[in-house]
Design goal:
This protein is an alpha/beta fold. The chain is built from eleven helices and 14 strands. 43% of the residues are buried.
Length: 376
């Protein structure tokens, strides 16, 4: 059974995307799950536009992960004998990576994830990335303790999905210039994905879990081969460790005005730790992802978690240690970014002083935990 997983921020985009996919896949089952207040889950199943079932159930713990585990996976399992293709419309704000892993864990070889599709309205993408409210506060989920922002959800989905289906629900007229700008932003943020509209002849990308996992690994950097004006992506590499205080002061300027900041840091206050950095719209956070490969291996190797980055960036003296930072926005100054990061690099004297003690303003010596989460 082939399963196409469709994620979205809102039910309108999801509905339009699933209808477009179904039109190109005659006979497919279309399954929608919606999580409402107080743990109420509504499940609907359609084929060729005809509703086959509608069921309601109440979860003891009304969270998105419980909805996937307790209703989405069992439903797909039950429908395996009723066709060869399921188009699965996830509840809004449910990450496709969570659904894909739950489906593969629960159903194994009986299913094939043929595509992970993000449905989004291009005219709204930029505003959603810069929305400082949580998903709950912005009305995208009924779960009060879901503190992700709309931008965090979108960036995660853009990285994991192999296809972006542009949906324009006819609710509010969209300025063509704003829509075009949104399309270019989507292409800049997801250069690996097939970006398509629902105007017929949809050809989704092919899902590759290993590649999707590598793209979404903390600290991973993937950039487009060519920029999509007015947006561009600048990548800066620094070989020496960063002075933590100088970097703390430079961070606000690095993040200001950029849609997406990501990469990995080598910071002098935690030299043995690979620090992932992520900034989406108004939020920036750092995370200790554990030791560098160079601290435990004489040569680089590629793992599912780290992907090819250690191999590609291996240095004869420093191994995979180093800072790699990518900044995406519509007014990105490569020279300014280079100057800011170079000024944070340890000097010859600081490198020579093996006994030097550096402040730890980010609390980076906390393994596998988010060290800082801030609104800039």
């Amino acid at each position: 059974m082939n399963v196409t997983v469709v994620s979205s921020l809102d039910a309108f985009c999801r509905q339009q995307a699933c209808a477009a996919l179904a039109a190109d896949s005659p006979g497919a089952l279309v399954v929608f799950h919606d999580l409402l207040e107080d743990g109420l889950v509504i499940r609907r199943v359609f084929r060729e536009g005809r509703r086959l079932e509608r069921e309601e159930s109440t979860l003891e713990h009304g969270c998105l992960s419980c909805t996937v585990r307790l209703d989405v996976v069992p439903t797909v399992g039950r429908l395996l004998e009723q066709g060869s293709h399921i188009i699965l419309g996830l509840p809004p704000a449910v990450a496709s990576v969570a659904a894909v892993h739950a489906l593969l864990k629960g159903l194994g070889a009986s299913i094939t994830i043929d595509s992970a599709v993000l449905a989004c309205a291009p005219g709204a993408v930029e505003d959603q990335i810069w929305d400082h409210h949580t998903l709950f506060e912005s009305g995208f989920t009924p779960v009060p303790d879901d503190d992700r922002t709309p931008g965090e959800f979108l960036i995660g989905e853009l990285a994991f999905s192999d296809t972006v289906l542009l949906a324009d629900p006819a609710l509010v007229p969209v300025d063509p210039a704003i829509r075009d700008r949104g399309v270019q932003l989507v292409k800049e943020l997801a250069p690996h994905a097939k970006v398509t509209a629902d105007d017929g002849g949809i050809r989704p990308g092919r899902h590759n879990l290993a590649e999707a996992t590598a793209r979404t690994a903390p600290g991973s950097v993937r950039i487009p081969a060519e920029s999509c004006p007015p947006f561009s992506t600048v990548v800066q590499r620094i070989r020496r460790p960063l002075h933590p205080e100088r970097f703390r002061h430079a961070l606000a300027a690095l993040a200001e005005g950029c849609c997406w900041l990501r990469g990995r840091l080598w910071v002098a206050s935690a030299p043995g730790c690979r620090i992932a950095i992520q900034g989406v719209g108004p939020r920036v956070w750092l995370e200790n992802t554990g030791p560098w490969q160079a601290d435990g291996a004489s040569r680089p190797f590629m793992s599912a978690e780290a992907g090819p980055d250690p191999v590609l960036d291996w240095h004869p003296e420093f191994g995979d240690r180093g800072t790699v930072l990518a900044v995406t926005g519509d007014d990105v100054d490569a020279a300014e970014i280079a100057a800011l990061l170079t000024a944070c690099e340890l000097s010859d004297a600081e490198m020579a002083s093996a006994a030097a003690s550096f402040p730890d303003p980010f609390s980076l010596n906390q393994p596998s935990e988010t060290a800082q989460r801030s609104t800039s």
